[in-house]
Give the backbone structure.
Amino acid sequence: MNVHSAESDRRLHREQLERLEQSLKDALAIVQATPRENLRAQDWLETAAEVGRHLAESREALAKVRHDVVGGARTALLLYFRSHPGEEVSPHQLEGVAAIRAWARRIRELRQVGWDIDTARAGADAPYRLNAPYLEEAVASSEETIGSIGGATPGERLIEYLLHISPWPASPQQLERVAKVPTWRQELRQLIEEGWLIESHDNAPAEIPPGHYRLANLES
């Protein structure tokens, strides 16, 4: 990543985080200005409507930062689950991570790939839990997993796929099919420059065949 691009990213993150902070402050100010006594129905409806508008702005800011530093909502959810295996995480946490309203649909898509994600009990507020820390190798390297990969850019598709199959390595053929461009190696180098710990045969010759790559950990 060149210096100009890195500075541009930092500026974007700073702007979006400032926007997030301001929208939350605005929502708080509206709540603080709401009468504590003799609260009328119409007053409360106006307060709720304005708070809702600012919370939507907050979600939009969250989504822009998430997209820039992680990728799509499904990738963000999987990364969060894999960073907290066996732990119960609330729907509110997952909505924050995904930064979209349709976050539950993305979890259903992860289940279709093969991820063992369940809910601890019935009810809309029931927490979710990832039961297995990784996919079985046969599932991870299957055609179905390759076909499930989304993402608007080659880099987004590559990191989602590597996240799905980690700790298993991916072959050059698999990575090119996922990236959908012949320059997939350049895309991998870009991801490494962005901070993703992606290993090759040179890093772990006993575990990674020549030409293969794997995501070594789940943090960027």
